Amino acid sequence: MENLENTHSFTVETVPYNPRTTSNGLPAIYLMKIIRAQGLRKSEWGSSNPYVILCSGAAEIARTRVIDHNLDPVWSEAFKVGLPGYIPDAEAVVSFTVYTRNELMADEILGSSSLALRDPILDDFLTHDIIKDLIPQGKLFLRVRKGGEKDNILFWVSRAMETLQFALEDMIRVYIDQVTNQFFKRMTDSLAFRFYPHFFSFFCCTSKNLE
User: Fold this and answer.
1) Which residues pair with residue 85 across a beta bridge?
2) What is the pTM assigned to this prediction?
3) What DSSP designation does 198 have?
4) Residue ranges of the domains in the chain?
5) Residue 136 and residue 115: Cα distance in Å, rounded?
6) What are the angstrom distances between the C-alpha of 101 and each of 2, 13, 33, 48, 194?
7) Of the candidates 30, 86, 127, 142, which lies 20 to 30 Å from 78 by C-alpha distance?
8) 32, 143 in Cβ contact below 8 A?
9) What would the pLDDT profile of 1-32 be if each residue is shown by its tens digit?
10) CA-CA distance, 141 to 104, in Å (whole number)?
């Protein structure tokens, strides 16, 4: 099995992780390789020069190089794609669009497909060979692996942030307890100092009267 660690091109989601807004778990890194396409349709303007653009929503996150004059191109290019934890499952999708480069006209779409990153099949952290049907024609061959904790910098950043947050909350709680205890102790000492002479005089007078 080919090693996906040797990525020569990558893109990582740069939105900061916020543990207070996370609703779908920890962030994740996906190691994704665009291997090849097969059976692409011919461009309406002549020969096809295909390349693939990866998008998350409307944002481009990566693209392959152009392969000239080929309907069965082989790219074999790997990328790292980051997914923040707070992204809803319905939006945790990477789309793949195969274009053909055209020097004179706008680049034409040859086919498109998508991959749900939170598909349970990827939760085993193993490498999966995936074949996606392109619309309207062709197939796209992928190799995908969900990165484990050792691959995921965002995982450790979030873990550190949560640890600091809990430590800060504990420190504040201990400080409040100490201040509260000191306050009540001083109040008790102050009241005792203020009323003790009166109590002593009353005790003495009461003792004399009893005698």
Assistant:
1) none
2) 0.61
3) H
4) 28-150, 152-211
5) 16
6) 29, 27, 21, 7, 91
7) 86
8) yes
9) 445 544 433 333 333 334 333 344 567 889 99
10) 29
